């Protein structure tokens, strides 16, 4: 009975993925964790489809078991560590939590650099492929890197229409880079995992947060929020990594299948996924009658100009964290974002 209870506890929050129509039992089970609810797009669109595709390409030899935020393996700050220790075979995590783990990759989070998820994701992935991210992910087999759309400022009682409105506001932040931006605006950043956002909004410990439409919907924060300022002010970086020893131990055909459905192929999907997830979050805010504040080009340009000293200071500080030439990484990121924006969004405003 004790063993049964332990097994049930370990399986709570787990989803096992195999390919439909394949009758044979899987020979290999790969475990992947993430830090969001099982209903989130990270699981429903991304990981579940990735797992089913891997099962199909290996003729049922591999099954993938997904552990979400409701499981014992869903803590946001433990995702990479669980993979490194071999507790999980793979994980999806947020670069900024814990802080300073991936300093070179944090360059993608500089204010007003990324507006679109496809451009941001492909830029971050290209920086990795070009070797510009240094030792950030040396411990892992990197299956993909990606970013979200340009993020918003969501608030309870204070509409943010100008920089002055941000002064003194306690806002949840996802990373050190975004914290630096908020501090430059005069706001007070507060680091919190997604699971703590709703409670801290409800208790008034924070007065808002900077994140996507998607996340405020996922944590049901639209029930409490009243204002959403769409400034596309920042982005956050994410990783999808695998334990290198586990990858190396797999049969050659399984490794080939993983490589085929990861990397360029996977990263190219995040633009459409984020469009879907953001649309759902925005629709939910509108359903609650919340006000959406659009920042015009002139105001956005003013905000962008105001953070240039912060960007220079942040990049200089990365050298103390072992990043050899952060300014060069930032310059290359600017070039790549411009290239991908021209490729995917030439006609967009």
Automatic annotation (TrEMBL):
Pfam families: DctP (PF03480). InterPro entries: DctP_fam, TRAP_DctP_sf. The keyword Cell membrane does not apply. PANTHER family: BLL6794 PROTEIN (PTHR33376:SF15), PTHR33376. Residues 1-25 form the signal peptide. This is C4-dicarboxylate ABC transporter. The keyword Isomerase does not apply. GO terms for biological process: transmembrane transport. SUPFAM superfamilies: Periplasmic binding protein-like II. Keywords: Signal. NCBIfam families: TRAP_S1 (NF037995). Gene3D superfamilies: Bacterial extracellular solute-binding protein, family 7.
